[in-house]
Specification:
The protein is mostly helical and about 140 residues long. Helix content is about 65%, strand content about 0%. The radius of gyration is 16 Å and the shape is elongated.
Length: about 140
């Protein structure tokens, strides 16, 4: 059975990313990523979330090789601003994807309006508003 490190390597290679690219985007060192992929180091939950966000993978899949949710229709691209907001808000991967989907749903309903790229603060405000409205 594949390990977390092996699954990270497999997805990274499928995405065409080098170790230095993934490490940079996930804000970890290349040597630490190499040690994770070679099963020489354990990864913290925060680092794993950042890796999952960059790879467009679920933390569940990286940890267990199984996904508990319905498979995605394609790769999920988390905007860098959302990734930073999710990290600051301590959101899980699933919460981050839910926030992205909520934003996309709002945009789809307002297609006649111009669409702007959200800042980190915009994403945090959207999360705060949705949490206030929906609990």
């Amino acid at each position: 059975m594949a390990t977390t490190g092996e699954r990270i390597r497999e997805i990274r290679e499928k995405r065409g990313l080098r170790q230095d690219q993934l490490a940079s985007q996930a804000k970890i060192s290349k040597s630490f990523l190499s040690e994770i992929e070679n099963n020489n180091r354990n990864v913290s939950s925060q680092a794993l979330l950042r890796i999952a966000n960059v790879l467009g993978a679920s933390v569940d899949y990286l940890l267990t090789g199984e996904s508990k949710e319905t498979p995605a229709k394609g790769p999920i691209t988390i905007p860098p601003e959302l990734s930073r907001a999710a990290e600051e808000l301590h959101l899980t991967f699933n919460q981050t994807v839910d926030l992205l989907e909520a934003q996309r749903s709002i945009v789809a309903r307002r297609a006649h309006k111009s669409i702007k790229n959200l800042t980190v603060e915009d994403w945090k405000e959207l999360h705060k508003t949705l949490k206030r409205v929906f609990g």
